[in-house]
Amino acid sequence: MSEIRIEHAKKIYNDITVIDNLNVYIPEGSLFTLLGPSGCGKTTLLRMIAGFNSIEGGDFYFGDKRINNMEPSRRNIGMVFQNYAIFPHLSVKDNVAFGLKQKKADTNTLEKNTEKYLKLMQIDQFKDRKPEQLSGGQQQRVALARALAVNPDVLLMDEPLSNLDAKLRVDMRQAIREIQHEVGITTVYVTHDQEEAMAISDQIAVMNSGEIQQIGRPKELYHRPYNEFVATFIGRTNIIPAELINQEGQAFLQFSNGYQLMFPALNEKENQKVRVSIRPEEFVRTEDGEIEATIIDSIYLGLNTEYYMDIPFASRIQVSEESTFTEDLGTGDKVKLTINIKKINVFNEDGSRNLLEEES
Predict the structure, then answer these.
(1) Confidence tier at 159 by pLDDT (50, 70, 90)
(2) Can you give the pLDDT at residue 52?
(3) Where do runs of H (alpha helix) occur along the chain?
(4) pTM (two decimals)
(5) pLDDT tens column, 101-117
(6) Which Pfam family, any one of them, does this sequence belong to (predicted)?
(7) Nearest Cα to Cα of residue 216 among 21, 1, 33, 28
(8) Which of 75, 80, 133, 160 is the most buried (most CB within 10 A)?
(9) Of residues 44, 19, 31, 3, the one with CA closest to residue 204
């Protein structure tokens, strides 16, 4: 396995620069996810690492080895695709052994590694079946076993779960996380699904328009996003315009109706227009809450109930709270809310910077 370093990467398609001066470090043995919307450049970057796309600028390294001009077959990578890409005419066992045969592994190594990954992926009982006799999740396990059997330095996974149904995706993402930790191989994983990324990753790079917006652990991205794009892409949030006002050394967030929220974390900041990010769970319903809210809709999701509410300084905010059997709030009902200021984020006027991140 290898660490991956990418320095000043550039990719140009038809005279259009889609990635420019991108830098990223992927630690050895980690599960590192490239996350972002369609067209953000995540799959393009993965294919540059794999050698399937040309590199118009910058340097790519596996450990100390520069791989820019190295053929894909010599990069010692394992690749798992969205559409499985397993061979329909071969048995499960022969699919898993395929890469080893291509590398001309000796008989003992071939048998040993094939059996090891059939068992690790829990598909050894299907080894004599053809892919058409397997479920989608089982086929994806075959693809993963084949990629791992060749003992690659790096494992690359491009939207591997997007063709599976919702429950199977949850089961497979847990399996991928457990197997990656057991094997300890450096893995680069591409997805547009933020929940999937949060569930499996050691670190996530959030991408947009060919640029990395933030790299961090899932908890860091959720609780301290660098900018408004990350805040809105990772989970759900309410973005509410306000003004940061400093009165005799004490900072307040003042909303459009004049409501003020004391916010000591920004006592050192000057007066300015801001955008406040409040996650749905940080609006808390209490009897003595200062914010009057009117429920306009609700969605019961089992563990949680999601409400849409109007408040004096924002319309249709999202509020999430744990469901109870007896609670029966409906459209038009009035409730009172408070805001958990410990977990909100405050961005500058254009949303490009988190003012709290500058203070830390």
Answers:
(1) very high
(2) 94
(3) 42-50, 92-102, 107-120, 136-149, 166-183, 194-200, 218-223, 228-233, 355-359
(4) 0.92
(5) 988 888 999 999 999 99
(6) TOBE_2
(7) 33
(8) 160
(9) 31
Position 360 confidence tier, pLDDT thresholds 50, 70, 90: low
- Which pLDDT tens digit goes with each residue over 326-340? 777 889 999 999 999
Q: What are phi and psi of 150, to 5 degrees?
A: -85, 5
Residue 285, phi then psi, degrees to nearest 5: -85, 125
Nearest to 301 by CA among 236, 223, 221: 236
CB neighbour class for 284 (10 Å; exposed up to 12, middle 13-18, buried from 19): middle
Q: How far is CA 60 from CA 9, 68, 146, 250, 276, in A?
A: 8, 6, 25, 48, 38
Phi, psi of 2 (to 5 degrees): -140, 150
β-strand partners of 348: 274
DSSP of 144-161: HHHHHHT--SEEEEESTT
User: What are the strands of the beta sheet with 186-191, ordered from one edge?
Assistant: 77-80, 154-158, 186-191, 31-35, 203-208, 211-216
How many degrees, rounded to 5, is the angle at CA 61 between CA 56 and CA 63? 180
Specify whether the CB–CB gap between 250 and 262 falls below 8 A: yes
Q: Provide the angle, in degrees to the nearest 10, between the axes of the packed helices 107-120 and 136-149.
A: 140
Helix axes 166-183, 136-149, angle to 10 degrees: 20
Is the predicted pLDDT of residue 49 greater than 80, yes or no? yes
Residue 191 corresponds to which amino acid? Answer: T
User: Helix or strand or coil: residue 7?
Assistant: strand
Q: Which residues pair with 294 in a beta bridge?
A: 310, 334
* Burial degree of 326 (CB within 10 A; 0-12, 13-18, 19+): exposed
Q: In this model, does residue 359 exceed pLDDT 70?
A: no
Q: What share of the chain is helix, strand, coil (3-state, %, to 5)?
A: 30, 35, 35
Tens-digit pLDDT profile for residues 203-240: 999 999 999 999 999 999 999 999 999 999 999 999 99
Neighbours of 308 (CB within 10 A): 17
Contact partners, residue 61, CB within 8 Å, separation at least 6: 4, 5, 6, 7, 67
User: What pLDDT, in 10s, does the model give residues 17-29?
Assistant: 999 999 999 999 9
